[in-house]
Amino acid sequence: MLAIAILAAGKGTRMKSPLPKVLQNLAGTSLIEHVLNNCRTLQAKRRFLIVGHQSELVKNKLTKLNELEYVLQEPQKGTGHAIQQLLSTMETYDGELLVLNGDVPLLKPQTIERLINTQRESGADATILTARLKNPTGYGRVFTSSKNCVKAIIEHRDCSKEQLSNTLTNAGVYCFSWKKLKSVLPKLTSNNDQEEIYLTDAISLLSLVMHLEVTNTEEVKGINNQIQLAECEAIIQQQLSNYWMQEGVKFIDPSSCTLSQECKFGENVTIEPQTHFRGSCFIGNGCNIGPGCLIKDSILGENVCSIYSVLDNAQVGNGVTIGPFANIRPGSEIENKCRIGNFVEIKNSHINTGSKINHLSYIGDAELGQKVNIGAGTITANYDGINKHKTIIGDNTKTGANSVLVAPISIGSNVTIGAGSTLTKNVPNNALSLERNKQLIREDWTKGLNK
Ligand code: UD1
Ligand code: CA
Description:
Number of strands: 40
Bound molecules: uridine-diphosphate-N-acetylglucosamine, calcium ion
Structural class: alpha/beta
Number of domains: 2
CATH class of the largest domain: Alpha Beta
Distance between the termini: 105 Å
Shape: elongated
CATH superfamily of the largest domain: Spore Coat Polysaccharide Biosynthesis Protein SpsA, Chain A
């Protein structure tokens, strides 16, 4: 029988961030969600999350996970104190307790499984995960007996100079026999440099503790500061781009791109340099994205080509070309074969099949029919200072350069709008509409000036 406890109550003082540490983002996903994902497939009777610092914020992030039991640790007096909070709810439990630090996000599920199996096979009081780190600064050091049993863990700041030369470190991942741990938890003291109650002190109070050493040290990286967060980001970015390259995505320069875990690609996709994906995205077959794009929470159909552009919460059909320098804002739906050109901003608008908005336009809160041609510099004036209003443009309509369409306004289909018009009234189908002063010509004007 297995129960899981994840430690997520700490403030993360060393991050120097207003956000609780376990909510810091790694490849677009919070640290705590990474840790929860890593143990998702394990069969567990109970799953506890120990929360404390800004607990409501942490809980709000995880509302979808209803199998989690939250345990409040208030105040936060250390990792041992955090686990002591389970004593009352787990009084009659008899099985293993897997403890994971909420700031160790790169662990592989298989490694956690190996740890549990090692514990079950050995029948020890506990098995802990260890690694030999080239730079073990900040980590607890693991001291073993001749038989390779763990005798004690001593925190970096409590180590003597000699003890610091030991590079075998504690990964912050433990599988305990709960019965055995339960009996020593009340004996933990705060007799250390930080005056906290350390879970690691339980080790020397138990009779038999084994360790499982991982060889891939990247997996056990803990995050205490912004440097370690950036190091983990680099590792996870490389893992993501390697995964997608194995799936056939062509990255011209993967190290200059960033991906999110929720980003998926179809076949025969090319990603040009300096292109970034955030949130949940799907990029369809044959797309060519970049250089220089930011794509967030968007769905792209097949053969979309986008250069130096930003897409946020957009839905884009097949064969659409975007940019350079387009800004596609939330709520935009662009159907097949449209063309969105340079310096075009689109917000909360539906652009139907085959329409073109090629140059220097703002299209906001609009509904465009099929094969509409928006002339350079056309603006939908959607805001009257208080409310936003809608612009409707029918199929095959052409707006002249520098048209201003003052919403709410409805322009029919097959309409031609003269260049430079500011329209405030609806236009029926098949009409020409223009609003413009008569052009003035004074012949021989300069002659008069010279007198
Ligand atoms: C801890 C280990 C250290 C190990 C390292 C691995 C202890 C005493 N030390 O050190 O041996 O090498 O992890 O990354 O455990 N937390 C609580 N309540 C608290 C304090 C912390 O829930 O009162 C949570 C934190 O939110 C964090 C985790 O416990 O997710 C670890 O705490 P942290 O302070 O980062 O411990 P380290 O100093 O990294
Ligand atoms: Ca830590």
